[in-house]
Amino acid sequence: MDRLGEGNVPPAFREESDLVKRRLEKLEEWKARGIEPYAIKYPHEDTTTRIRQRFHELGNGEESGYRASLAGRLMALRRHGKACFADLEDGWGRLQLLAAVDSLGEEGYTLFQELDIGDWIGVEGQVFRSRRGELTLRVSRFQLLSKSLRPLPEKWHGLKDVELRYRQRYLDLMVNPEVKRNLLVRVRTIGELRRFLDERDFIEVETPMLQPIPGGATARPFVTYHQALGEDLYLRIAPELYLKRCVVGGLERVYEINRNFRNEGISYKHNPEFTMLEFYWAFVDYLELADFLEEMLTQVVKAVKGELRFTYQGQELDLTPPWRRVTMLEALGEVLGRPVSSSTPVEELRELSARREVPLEEGWGAGKIMTELFEKLVEPELWSPTLVMDYPREVSPLARVHRSDPFLTERFELIVAGREIANAFSELIDPLDQRRRFEEQASQRERGDDEAHLVDHDFLRALEYGMPPTGGLGLGVDRLVMLLTDAHSIREVILFPHLRSEA
What we know:
The chain is α+β, with helices and mostly antiparallel strands. The protein has helices at 18-32, 48-54, 101-113, 162-167, 169-175, 177-198, 240-248, 286-305, 328-336, 346-355, 366-378, 431-446, 457-464, 477-485; strands spanning 63-80, 83-89, 94-100, 120-129, 135-146, 203-204, 210-211, 223-226, 231-235, 253-261, 273-282, 309-312, 315-318, 324-327, 386-389, 411-416, 419-426, 470-476.
């Protein structure tokens, strides 16, 4: 048949390499032979892992007598005259293939040799172990299932361009095995979190992603417009206020593992779309939650990682309990070299901030300034798991006022390796106090703080029906998985992280 001329090459491929043009020609050649290059389905019985498990004791040079059927992507092809070896990869692993004239015939063997790395194929044949000890399938029948038109990244170097890896994650999954390993760790971690809570009688629920009022955190939301309702809606920044409505309704232990969305910067620590575990537990306070979190994470990490002491980013990290507990103001005072308390004047805090080159905004009170100083100077230096207790009321509009200091709230954060992993409160259940807090937030919003809470009147109405004493906790799933996979960037543990659009 005629080779593809420049005019016959689809526009999407015209600036691609000669390799792409040759694959397009092969596609037409297979069609000309009456072979469909894009199959509808391919029933098969086996996976690479099942075959390896079943025949792991097969001796070198020994035949199994078993005829297997597999489907997967061709990842390597080594031609040797009358025989060639190939690697087939499915969703579980890889297996060597042996294709030869004596098992496929001349025509079949010629077609097999015309396959390209990246093609999806189905194969049948006998399983044996080669004299060199490699478990192998001797191909007696194969079928092209999907023709790959673009070559995979060069096999010896893999996919190294970081932005390309994130932008074309499908290639990353194909050629970088650690990406799939990270994904499996993520899946296992979420499963273990869910199992831990389910075994303790928590109920999993789903709350709205689109909300008329964004609440539950101090963050800038994404906004959209609902045509039928004729009003703005917001992608949720947290499920908190809806989960609390569940507690008001009588669900005493409730949780959700799902996405949150925050219209903020993108960095190695932040993605605008991220996964949180959030739960609420009636009749407990934040001190009991601290014990519960310590137990939950040590069990989950042990189940997923197999140990509580491991290396993260070249430095040893030990999650063995008990974890250190320190108040936020104590930790800040240690770094500043002087005590800090609810009576420290705002002017003095501003001087300390200027001396430490921590920028502040007009209108911030003492609690906000203290929190900013803590986040800039203290939090990045907390490597071992640390439960930082008692945050200022000014930055905790949904937390209960501290039982011994009205400047503070009953709130803690878990900091590990310099990052916040979890945040928990004794929840504010007084509807009158909550209304005052919302009104304070509304005032901050009028002064230019677009992350401050809006007033959620329906939530206030729910509280007025009565909410039992409750503890609530949010856990950053992505950041936990970063620790368990030794990932520096959150993008390594999110399958499809957000990036700026291609030019």
